């Protein structure tokens, strides 16, 4: 439902008579004031006009009648006063020009959107007060920009869930992701398909806690100096089903149709193999080996020995089915787990083979193993990087992200008040490509109450629909306390809904008519949209439309990191880690 701003705006191109009248009135008052001051001071200095009246209008009348003398000193005083007035006028014009210097074509809409009082909870003292209530004193929250009107900084709180729709090359990393990441008071989970955010923030975050970079596809040329066992997440059959779901979502081509029988069957079969590997203490790469050998009964035996009889029956049932059915299920599951055959991924998810020592004992992997349960209690940073296409590690990135955030949720459930004492911030950049967490819309609002604020970033509305479906994307949008649209999208249906949500205003129009030579002017009000679809499609870089719970839309100026408090530290981190610096 759109909201109506009852502000009135004149028809474009029409002059404002009220402003002209006001300017003339102020000029007249200034002239009278200068004459009165000059006459009064000049007369005292030269000792003339002993019976000078205090009424400025009688004073001017006396000068015109010749009953009062204009002192010579009054001319100098008037010149000085005029000079001061001119300087003030120049200063006002200069300040006005400076304010207009950074203005864009859509800024005229800002006064017709939410007034500052409606979003006061996101500003200054109130934002600080909210953070103190959440146990984060001295930190106003997650920066989202500044109001176009008055330039007031705006912050989302550490219990606000956020969604960002921003097309390519509109500055979302520079102005939203990087400032948000560096605002985190505790642990951070970040996903991306590029290295820019990592390079810009890793050294700054390293001062707060350990930095973990999961980079199986060498997006940032990172070496596997640590490893994570995805099967450590699989503590029971339910977690096995969830992990299989991450593999299924990550391997699915966006927009591809799902087979109503074989896709669920393949996912369930994959869950059984993942559980078998977990209870048998096997590496996750073993799962792919099982998928290439239809006669291997090891998974069934492991499940039966661990007491998962029904899961064992499910795996055995597939193996004993007709050849055509069995092969189809195996092929479906193999496609879902295809990333496990990538040799570059193995060092990141399997322990290194260290051989044996002099006494014949196996040498343990000296690399640290990532433990989500320990991570969420600290102030470290987890960067997960992946690219779409052949060899993608997207399913593992999703699994690692989900495992870490779910560990934070479990820790929050056992904490005072049922929430994390220090919030954990999740920034899911390229959420539709890198981190296809299909359960996210259902969990979004719940995470906010646990002290796990998440910012999900999409390049378009349709990109989110391809992963979550139309209803799932709407659920994600509705569950977000702060919604940002930063331009770069050309989807008219989405932009039309945005225009409706921004609302309307009353524009004053005038018409002139002549009747028997007599000219008459009439005015009327015409209701129009504050921002049309075309204006939203062409939203200039540096501007965003923000919706926050309980208030109307606000036009926001995004603030890039190089205008923020960490500019020097970020520049140093980029210089230290960008590829050219390694040569």
Can you characterise this structure?
With 583 residues, the protein is α/β, with parallel strands linked by helices. It has three domains: 4-101, no CATH class; 124-219 and 371-507 and 523-582, P-loop containing nucleotide triphosphate hydrolases (Rossmann fold); 230-349. The protein has 20 helices and 14 strands. It has helices at residues 17-46, 56-65, 72-101, 124-133, 172-182, 196-206, 237-251, 262-279, 285-291, 298-305, 309-319, 323-336, 346-349, 372-375, 394-413, 440-449, 461-479, 492-502, 533-537, 567-577; strands at residues 4-10, 142-147, 153-156, 162-165, 188-192, 211-214, 381-385, 425-428, 454-458, 482-485, 504-515, 518-529, 543-548, 554-557. The strands form two sheets. An eleven-stranded mixed beta sheet has the order 3-2-14-13-10-4-9-8-5-7-6, with helices on both faces. Strand 2 (142-147) and strand 3 form a beta hairpin. Mean pLDDT is 88; it is low at 10-15.
């Amino acid at each position: 439902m759109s909201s109506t701003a009852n502000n009135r705006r004149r028809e474009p191109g029409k002059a404002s008579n009220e402003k002209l009248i006001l300017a003339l009135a102020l000029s007249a008052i200034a002239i009278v004031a200068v004459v009165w001051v000059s006459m009064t001071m000049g007369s005292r200095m030269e000792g003339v006009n002993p019976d000078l009246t205090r009424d400025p209008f009688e004073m001017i009348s006396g000068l015109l009648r010749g009953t009062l003398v204009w002192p010579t000193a009054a001319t100098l005083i008037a010149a000085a006063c005029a000079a001061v007035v001119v300087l003030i006028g120049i200063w006002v014009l200069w300040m006005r020009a400076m304010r207009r210097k950074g203005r864009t074509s859509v800024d005229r809409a800002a006064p017709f959107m939410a007034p500052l009082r409606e979003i006061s909870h996101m500003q200054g003292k109130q934002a600080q007060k909210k953070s103190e209530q959440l146990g984060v004193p001295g930190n106003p929250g997650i920066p989202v920009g500044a109001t176009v009107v008055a330039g007031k900084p705006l912050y989302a709180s550490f219990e606000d869930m956020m969604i960002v729709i921003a097309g390519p090359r509109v500055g979302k990393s520079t102005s939203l992701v990087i400032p948000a990441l560096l605002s985190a008071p505790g642990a951070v989970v970040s996903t991306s398909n590029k290295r820019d955010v990592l390079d810009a923030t890793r050294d700054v975050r390293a001062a707060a806690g350990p930095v973990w970079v999961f980079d199986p596809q060498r997006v940032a040329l990172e070496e596997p100096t640590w490893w994570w066992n995805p099967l450590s997440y699989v503590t029971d059959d339910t977690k096995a089903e969830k992990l299989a779901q991450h593999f299924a979502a990550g391997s699915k081509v966006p927009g591809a149709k799902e087979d109503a029988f074989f896709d669920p069957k393949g996912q369930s079969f994959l869950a059984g193999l993942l559980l078998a590997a977990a209870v048998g203490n096997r590496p996750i790469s073993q799962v792919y080996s099982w998928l290439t050998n239809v006669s291997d009964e090891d998974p069934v035996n492991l499940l039966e020995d661990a007491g998962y009889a029904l899961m064992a029956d499910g795996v055995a049932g597939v193996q004993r089915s007709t050849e055509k059915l069995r092969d189809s299920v195996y092929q479906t599951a193999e496609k879902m787990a295809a990333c496990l055959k990538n040799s570059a991924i193995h060092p990141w998810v399997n322990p290194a083979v260290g051989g044996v020592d002099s006494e014949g004992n196996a040498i343990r992997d000296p690399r640290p193993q990532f433990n989500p349960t320990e991570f969420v209690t600290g102030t470290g940073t987890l960067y997960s990087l992946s690219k779409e296409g052949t060899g993608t590690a997207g399913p593992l990135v999703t699994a690692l992200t989900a495992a870490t955030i779910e560990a934070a949720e479990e820790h929050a459930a056992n904490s005072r008040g049922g929430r994390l004492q220090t919030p954990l911030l999740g920034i899911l950049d390229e959420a539709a490509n890198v981190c296809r967490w299909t359960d996210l819309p259902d969990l979004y609002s719940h995470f906010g109450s646990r002290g796990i604020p998440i910012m999900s970033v999409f390049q378009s509305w349709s990109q989110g629909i391809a992963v979550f479906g139309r209803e799932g994307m709407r659920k994600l949008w509705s569950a977000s306390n702060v919604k940002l649209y930063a331009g770069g999208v050309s989807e008219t249906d989405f932009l039309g809904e945005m225009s409706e949500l921004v609302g309307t205003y009353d524009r004053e129009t005038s018409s002139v008519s002549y009747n028997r030579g007599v000219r008459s002017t009439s005015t009327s009000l015409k209701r129009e949209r504050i921002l049309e679809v075309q204006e939203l499609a062409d939203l200039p870089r540096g501007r965003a439309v923000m919706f926050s719970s309980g208030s109307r839309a606000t036009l926001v100026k995004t603030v890039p990191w190089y205008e923020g408090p960490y500019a020097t530290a970020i520049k140093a981190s980029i210089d230290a880690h960008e590829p050219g610096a390694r040569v």
